[in-house]
Amino acid sequence: MRISLIPYGPLVGVLGEPPLDLELEATDAQTLLAELHQRFPALEPWTQRIACACGDSLLGPHSAIHDGDEIALIPPVSGG
Amino acid sequence: MRISLIPYGPLVGVLGEPPLDLELEATDAQTLLAELHQRFPALEPWTQRIACACGDSLLGPHSAIHDGDEIALIPPVSGG
Amino acid sequence: MEADMHLTHNAIALEPLLASTSNACGASLLFTGTVREHNEGRPVNGMRYTAHEPLAEKALAEICREAEQQFAVATCHIVHRLGELRLGDISVAIVVHSAHRAAAYEASRFAIEALKARVPIFKQEFYTDGDARYLDGQTLDAAL
Amino acid sequence: MEADMHLTHNAIALEPLLASTSNACGASLLFTGTVREHNEGRPVNGMRYTAHEPLAEKALAEICREAEQQFAVATCHIVHRLGELRLGDISVAIVVHSAHRAAAYEASRFAIEALKARVPIFKQEFYTDGDARYLDGQTLDAAL
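ok -> structure tokens follow
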């Protein structure tokens, strides 16, 4: 299915400016991240360090991903 | 000798508005307080709770008192 | 900036934050973070903050409510600036109004620590030598 | 009020305190105490603060220097108001500027606790029923 990814912070340098529209097989957040790491080896420094959100909701590992979703890719946060 | 006392806070209610000029026998802060407690029994609630200062200096128990000194009588402090 | 918003692209004005107290509150604490001229020994000349705004707004609102409830303070409000900031600009302001001071200090400290751990905001630092980098931060605890 | 004075008989203006930071400081903390409408369950309508001013000035200056040294903060400044205050008036303001936030919180808390323990200032509370009383406080540790 087609997913629109929105990378933030240093992930923009790896994945490019958002939005990034991809055809993915993943159906939940965990498998989406696994698929991304496979397609983009440059994400390696962020292994286990990216969270996913859809709108104002943080996604758990098994949160479902739906066709057409906009998924925010959230690296470590550094506000303040 | 003659000492000018400057009571603060609730001590004004007991000793009156400053300055309060008294002839005292005391020669240090400790004996000055003892003498005041003897002369003014209404100071009883402040037993062990009054500090003395001269100008910007807090007096220790054995700090000397001199003729003509202005001695501040400092009850428990409640700033903030 | 609307009164109940936590993110702003404009300069943060402190006066409205400070004015929002009530006469029931004896203690107020205002924390502000500003852009420093050095970080980890490198001379800095500016910052850029970005955020995943819908979640950042929600997370900041949640942190304020948690601070109010956990520490029984009357008000906790956080404002975080986004976009380009120069030296000395305020990046974040946290104001707490409370009947008593101990709770104000605890709630304020809780709020800034929670902000740094839980809110999807990203800081890019610009150096006087022309270099730039995103600061490393704290991984959000989800979807790993 | 002169810049280096700690006691004032006028309203405390916060803007000059907040403005006195430098670009070396990433964190600022402003504590303010205000007159509350209730204390220990009694409705209050004002306060009067008096001080033994020469010692109070010196003690406040010492507390600021101690806070700066013990917590390695760039600046600690305290202003305490004297005279008649109404509900909502600021009685005390403490501003700390620091490179890092942990030290700012610690220094600010130290300063307000030290003020309450060591500075010869006296608070008289006026109640809506016409009664007035001096609040009990902390005994200075000298000459007992």
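Chains B and A do not touch (no CB pair under 8 Å).
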